[in-house]
Amino acid sequence: MARRRGGLGEAVNDVAGAVRRPPLRIGVIAAALTGLLLLLCCTGGTAAFFLTGLGGDEAKDGDDLAALGCGPVRPVNLTGDLPRFSEYGDAQIRNAAIIIKVGQDMGVPSRGWVIALATAMQESALRNLANSGVPASLALPHEGVGADHDSLGLFQQRPGWGSVAERLNPAYAARKFYEKLVGVQGWQRLPLTAVAQRVQISAYPDAYAKHEELASRIVNALSGGAARTVEINGKAVCDAAEQGQIAASGWTAPISGNVGSGFRTTSRPGHDGVDIGAAKGTDIRAAATGRVLVAKCDPDKRGRESCNVDGFPGKGGCGWFVDLLHAGGYITRYCHMVVQPRVHKGQMVTAGEVIGQVGSSGNSSGPHLHFEVHQRSDRSASGAVNPVPFMRDRGAPLRRPA
Fold first, then answer.
1. Would the pLDDT of 364 be above 80?
2. What DSSP string describes 134-156?
């Protein structure tokens, strides 16, 4: 079978920022709903899944809901108001809810919901697309018209996935995606891009990762913080992604340990990260899948590259350190490694992969990991954000002393 293009996607780098898409026009939504009513008359129960109200005036802001604490995973309710996101219209969020609900009903762990959403975001912008080259699809309810080979629906599935009517049924399309997803060996630990590519066989395999951040926020808002959970012994556990466990969001804590010196404290206003105590030689893990920007010895104040010995306060420099660039333009930094990092510039690493060991090189008073998070692909101090709330929101919290 010939390789197909990735839906509406274009060749983009896997660390590009999320693409904002305009909401559907009211006329398109109205036409789709009219078609849905006709389909219900003719096909019965298969169409009933679609007939849920669009978000009304009472719909809450999705980002506000996504920021709430993680509790028991909440089943998605398709019959009431759904939260709103500026990136998508009400009908698109309704499609996202259907995708998550199907995953819940099938018992797929929440990491799968994030992968499925990110895939549909890339393939169709969460629109149920007919195809100008498939005339039969134009007579069925749809939310736009594509022209990618003979691909249809939210996941732009080709004829091997089902009939025209089946591929234009969001619930059916999501179920077929999940059935293939869970057949990918080790899918919960693989990068989102790798899993989506094995399911979709896209011509643009790197395009999916840029949607992971927003997909996680939507999952959190619709299902009670599920993107912050880790699957442990068959149960979704909140805020427990460490020691190589990967949260559904795709993030994990770089080491297990307590945060000592915090982010830009009164006594250290220029401290652009946090210090996490750990024994020398403790493995340091990549907090998320990404590309190595830097892996080297940081010179001290006198310009010396003396990282193979323990440092001291006032020496200056980060010692042996690594910077990783992640999807969404986030950068993480790992300082004071005991020896040269295990990774090299340009290398792709996966979430939870060991990239080095804790040490005390550079400007350091003892073994610990200095950990930073930056946004907007900005490695400077102006791009730094507090890692504690950032990692907590992704289900990989950095511990605070008891």
1. yes
2. -HHHHTS--S-EE-STT-BTTTT
